[in-house]
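Quick log. Single chain, no ligands specified.
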Amino acid sequence: MFVAIGGPSPVAAAEAAVGLGTATSFAVLGGSTVTNTGPSVISGDVGLHPGTSVTGFPPGIVNDGSIHATDALASSAKDDLVTAYNDAAGRSMTGAVTADLGGQTLLPGVYRGPTLGLTGALTLDGAGDPNAVFIFQASSTLTTATASSVVLIGSAQACNVFWQVGSSATLGTASDFAGTIMALTSISATTGATIEGQLLARNGAVTLDTNTITRPVCDTTQITTTSTTTGGSTTSTTTGGSTTSTTTGGSTTSTSAVVVPPTVPGGGTTSSTVPGGGTTSSTVPGGGTTSSTVPGGGTTSSTVPGGGTTSSTRPIGPGRDVPGATGGKLPTTGSSPLGAARVAFVLLIVGGGVLVASRRYGR
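-> predicted structure:
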């Protein structure tokens, strides 16, 4: 058995949240009476069943909700509260805790004690999981001291903190509390107490005095990304800090944008290689430089409508070395600048000889 006396608790198997059913919408729900003194501000429904007396509104204000006194919704909420209370009470314990929770840091789990109290600050660390659940089981009472607080860190959310109390709960003056209290009997929030949570009493009264009570809503934002792959698809869903990916058949293809550094304003550089020879054609509509290499021989054609420079490299051709070719050369066929020069030179010599002969015999 683990006894938390300060410092983080061990990580236990993930607990499911306690389902509140129709009681979810209630910031305050009582059994016998709901009584308010002073300008309390309640965000959420205020309900009572089977009692009939809801007093103190005004000066109390109910925002984002309504008062339900002994109506069908209050009756349904009370039934669902009983179910939720029994669920929380029946959860297997992660660890026992000392009577005073003050000064401790606890990780998600189920904690039990005969009575629970809070002096100073209790820190609940979600360890980066917004779905982390904390359940406190008090066999008897829950009492918080003046100016005490429940601090949530590591993505912990008040909507996932539950206090199951075997008799009654009392929240001290100017205390700052978080979580849903489900008390078998009664709940009293003294002057100036602030609650991010719900005060739900099964059989007794809920008594308020200049309090601010905000029904918590879990952050369930989802970001979904779908990537279609050849023959299948991959879907990734992110909820808070947790990501789940599912791939159905096929193979994954990733497409990345490639930035080519331009050499001519408006254009760019392209490169084509045809290892077996043949014809390659590159077009750079904005102008620029194209480079084609045809190691096996052939013809390159580059079109640069926007202007620029074309460059073709042909490692083999007439008179060039070709690895593996007979004699290391390819036969020279056709015309070339060098052949033309030789013909011109011969014609020049022949022409000169004819001119000399004509002059000699012309005399």
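The chain has a mean pLDDT of 76.
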